[in-house]
Design brief:
six-stranded mixed β-sheet; alpha+beta; 8 helices; 16 strands
Length: about 450
Amino acid sequence: MAVSLYLLTFNCARNLVQPNVFAPYLFHALPPGSDSPSILVLCLQELAPIGLAFLGGSYLTPYFNAFRRVVDLAGKESTYINIISRNVGLTAIMVFAKEDVAANITWLQSAGIGLGVSEMGNKGAVGVRLGYRTAHETVPLTFVSAHLAPMEDALERRIQDYKNIVQGLVFVSDEQKRPSMEDEGTVEDEGTVEDEGTVVDEGTVVDEGTEETPLLASRLEIVETNTHRGIYSPTSLLFFAGDLNYRTSGLRPSPDDVPRFPQPAKNEDDPNHFSHLLAEDQLQQQLRVGKTLYGLQEAPITFPPTYKYQQDGKTPVVTDGEHAWKWATHRWPSWCDRILFSPTESHDIEVHHYTSLPLFATSDHRPVALAASILLPSVRDRTHPGATPAFPIDPNWRARRDAARKKEVVVGLLAYLSLTREGNALVLATIVGALAGWLIMRSALMG
């Protein structure tokens, strides 16, 4: 049994996506004539401004709803159900399933970790593990959206970030108690569960939902054991995507380097062709020596760097061939946005296309997408070469995440009050109200 899968990773640059502009290109990586994929996974970074992202919950409703609108517009004849949407700070993941296969998703787990200052979620990772029912068994699939440390000289920090993800991204049951956007914030349900996590009864129906409410599975039975699971599991394929921030140099570019930046060229012998810069990619170098993303691999890169573009904000979308690439001169053009997956020696995954989407005005990153098929019957029959984690799970992962979450709420509130119009208005109203109260009290006392 083959299930079609489509993954997209996109750094949103803290801006609302424009659904009418983005939707026509969402399935850009699908081969011509392909049917709509059965499972669609959106891995999103810099989803919203820091104040809204750290507060989470309903503050992120417009940002999640914008991508739901993108999927609705792009799906055309196919109807997609948003099975789950989760975030840790600015990093988010959304899993969609076609209406005719949604009932095959029988349980859900989610996980989250912050990687930024004080382990808050300005950088971080969030994951979903789901059980997909076939004719003979239910097999787990694992998806992770990540945002690692930036800057050319932060290679070791990126390696450490991945180690922290392996040690602290622990999947727990996602109860999905009610179809409410109140649950769309940072993962907080950290009960102890087994690998099968939340189980959906046979014959589960999917709620119809509303525009403000994602369509969620119902009638969930929670299975509790004493076993935690990290991102590596011997029975689950793993897809790891995001703004991994690997660069093409360990130093910032000088003015003399700018003429070497790639430009559109069809011939690889052309010195402006991006393939010459690709040879300097830090991630490919680290994968070859086995220093990060253990047991994972990537399809061949045949697309230009995905970061950092200059945008004037006036042109909604720029496709290749229309203009020269306009690069920011203080950063090396790099393949920051990547999608990796479990090895394919056992033919569990068939890659159809791996490419970048056009450049949208709302971001300085280009999205990257992977179209593939998963051969589910073979998954549980094998222990995958990369299934054994290189690092043990941190026994204090829950306490560390709880402590970081408290800091996120404080920082989020301060950022909301100081950096948004709504927050400024609230502060002003509070000051005016306090002043008015003081004047009234003073008048009463003097009278």
